[in-house]
Structures are given as C-alpha cells and as structure tokens.
Amino acid sequence: MSASLPIPVRRTGLVLLGLLLVLGSFVTAGPRAALLMLVGLGLGLVLEGLRFGFAGPWRVMVTERDGRGLLAQFVAIGLAALVAFPLLASFPDELSGAHAPVGFAMIAAAFVFGVMMQIVMGCGSGTLVNAGSGNLLALIALFGFIAGSFFGTLHLPWWTGLGSLPVYTLQGLFGEGAGLGVTLAGLAGLGAVVYMKAAPDKRRIPRRLWVAALLIAVFASLNLVIAGQSWGVVYGLGLWGAKFAQAAGMEVAATTFWSAPAHALRLQQSLLTDVTSLTNIGLLAGAFLAMRWKHNPDPQIAALSASSWAVVLVAGVIMGYSARVALGCNVGAFFSGVSTGSVHGWVWFVAAFGGSCVGLRLRPRLLISSNAIKTAAGGSGYE
Amino acid sequence: MNDPIKLQGQLPGRPVVGMLALGFILVLLIVDNAESTPINPFNAPPLIAVGSGQAPSGAHCTQP
User: Fold this and answer.
1) In terms of Cα–Cα distance, which of B15, B27, B8, B11 is closest to A288?
2) In total, how many domains does chain A have?
3) Given an 8 Å threshold on Cβ–Cβ distance, is B61 in contact with A262?
4) Sequential DSSP letters for A23-46
5) Which residues of chain A does B36 touch, with a Cβ-Cβ cutoff of 8 Å?
C-alpha cells in the first residue's frame, strides 16, 4: 500500500485488509472471534481517527489546563456504566465485570504505571494504537510492554501476597441501582473538579470527542455482551510475551501464574481464542487503517538520542510490569473497572494520575531529541 | 510535502512503521500457531456471551 497509489485504490486495499482480518478470524476461530476482531478494529479506528486517548488528555490537563479530553473520558465511562450495570445485574452467570481487589502493590504499581505512561507518551491501549499508526516510539515501547507484562505475571502472586482487601464493588456496597448512581455521581464530581480547574476556553468537550466517547462506550459494551467480560488490554500483551518465552524454550507452563487452570488454558490455546488478544490485534490494525486512510499521515516523531530510545524501551518494560501488578491499565482497571463498579478502578485512577504528574516532570529530562544533542555539540546548549 | 514513505530525518515514516507493527503481529501469530493446540472449529463458543447460558471463560488483566 504505497503512498504513491491513488487514494481510492489505497482505501479499497485498506477495506479489504480489514475484511481479511475479520473473515480470517471467522474461518479460523469462529463467529465470536470475528465479532471481537470487529470490535477491536472499531476501537482502533475511533481512538486513532477521532484522536481519543488517555495519556494525552491527562498530560494537557496538568500542563495546559485543557480538560476537554479528560471530561470526554468521564463521559465515555459513564455511558459504558449505564449499559454495564444493568447487564451485569441481569446476566450474572454469563457476564463478569472488571472487578479486582485494592492492595498495597496494586496502588504502588498504578502510580508507577502513571509515571511511565507519560514517559512513553501512551497508556496500554495508546501504545497499541500509536504503534499501529506508525509511531516509532510507541512500537519500541510496545515491545517493552509485552516483555514487562509477561515478567509481571511471573511475580504477580508475590506482589498480591503483600496484602490486599477483598474485592469491593459499588453495586455490592450500595445495591444495583444505587451503585450505578454512585458511579455516575463520582464521575460527575470528578468532571466538576476538572471543569473548574481547566482554563475557561478548554472546558467544553468538542463534537469530535462527544462522538468518540459515545462510540468507545458502544464498542466497550459490545465487548461485554460478546465476550462476557469487560474490555481489557494488558492480559493479552502478557500472553503474547508468554508465547514468545515458550517458543524460546522457557518452561512457562511450570510457573505459578501460568499453571493456574484459566491461564494454562490460554497459554495452550491459540491467541485467536483469547478475547483480549483479538481486540488488541484489532486495535492495532484499526489504528493502522485510520492512519493510512488519511491523505497525508502525520509526520514521524522527532528522532531521539540513543540513550532516550533505551529509556523508552525500559519505560515500556516497567509500564507493562506495573500494569500487570496494578491489575490493569487505563482500559482494564480505569475504564472497565469504574464502568463495571469496581472500587479498585477508582483507586487505580487516583494513584495513576498522581504518578502521571511525576512522569510529566521526568519526561523532558529523560527523553532528549537527537537534534538537541547536535545543537549542544555546536555550542548552543540544550533548550 | 514530504513523501511519508521516505525517511523523515533518520526515522522511517509512519506508513513504514505501521507496516512493521502489522508484520510483528504476523510473526506473533506464526509463533503462536507453532506453540498452540490447533483450533477446533466445532468447539467454537456461541456467537455472543449474553444468553448463551455459559459462564465467561476468558482471562482478564483484573484476575490475579
């Protein structure tokens, strides 16, 4: 699909590529796999095509008092909650929410994740989307994320053993209807804080983000209806790392985490039968399709110094590791956790946002463009 | 206007890196195919979970 191809030809090719992914999933793994691939593609198209993200809006809220993206996140989560709460109550034996316990390691890991996601400029879903849309930094970070989330599985039992509370959900604490009410009230409260803190001209959610928030909520709800579980990212990436480690000769199946029946099954079976792997692949491919659909793709990121590329890789590893220990990333813990009533989702958000503020201070010190080095060598010094 | 396929400075353009990302997925699926038990198409789950009568069997990052 060269850039020199006429646009109609290129776009026809992109549509065929999307169809190939869906049909390929259908033929090899059945209709549910095809639907989940479609959901992943839809999420990737929306996230890249409509510029809906997680790490970026957190960053600009702090640095530019721009609250529009963060408010759109709360809208998307609220809309998803409006669907998820009644569904989980109506089909308790067929659907499960993203519910996890709050623990010492979980909170610390969410904080570390927040630091790292500002250094690599993307969260779990953002790294996949950015890699698919051709961002070289994100592709490097993705390799690190996959390795890190796999390493995290090797130590997860130890980390969770440090101490955690039982799993608390808002519907469990307050009842089904009130649990949803508390969730929406919490999101509205956070939204009010963001609205007041944001600059006056950066408070109103633009139409593009309203549409994106609605579509993200629709696709997340479809994920729940089709897969029986909430939208997630990190598990799939850890599984990918486990597959590579196994191929390299490591006895992955003998480890504590991967010998547990549910995980052993995933390790043994094809990735095309794994929910999060399917949506992750769709996410990355959807972002690629959105990027190539444009007349002129955005320019590549600025070249970094050699040490900065190493920082990106290491930060990706730490981000993957911490996401696994934190029991999810922006998607699995924050978006899906909050929208399905898990208390850990709220705690995750507070810890990760705090870490994000630290990451914003570290990033300019750790990521240095190669141009800056050349300028420094010429005697002008760093900016 | 720069050709996005060509190098921008020292880095490949977005289309090239995007293709590399897709290539990585292809390699992943090839490795997975060699490491996994073959998919039994007659054992595929129902189209959607809701109304299937089956408990969710997938794994999620919130599971310790």
Assistant:
1) B15
2) 1
3) no
4) HHHHHHH-HHHHHHHHHHHHHHHH
5) 243, 268-271
> How far, in Å, CA of A215 to CA of A235, rounded?
23
Whether B15 and chain A come into contact, CB under 8 Å, resolves to: yes
What is the DSSP code (8-state) at residue A228? S
Residue A382 lies in a domain: no
CB distance A297–B44 less than 8 Å? no
CA distance A202 to chain B (A): 29
The whole-number average pLDDT for the span B7-27 is 87
Q: B26 — contact with chain A (CB < 8 Å)? A: no
User: In sequence order, which ranges of A294-335 are alpha helices (DSSP H)?
Assistant: 306-325
Is residue A1 in a domain?
A: no
User: pTM for the complete prediction?
Assistant: 0.93
**Which residue from A282, A348, A278 is spatially nearest to A114, judged by alpha carbons?**
A348
> Is A2 among the domain residues?
no
Across the interface, whether the CB atoms of B28 and A240 are under 8 A apart is answered yes
Which pLDDT does position B5 carry in this prediction?
Answer: 40
pLDDT given at position B64: 79
pLDDT < 50: residue spans in chain A:
375-383
Chain A residues with CB under 8 Å of B44 CB are 29-33
- Say which of A135, A235, A270 has its CB closest to residue B59: A235
Question: Which residue in the block uniquely carries the two structure tokens 């995933």?
Answer: A266
- Strand partners for A342: A169
Structure tokens at B44: 């595929």
User: How many Å lie between the alpha carbon of B2 and the closest alpha carbon of chain A?
Assistant: 9
- Whether residue A268 is contained in a domain is answered as yes
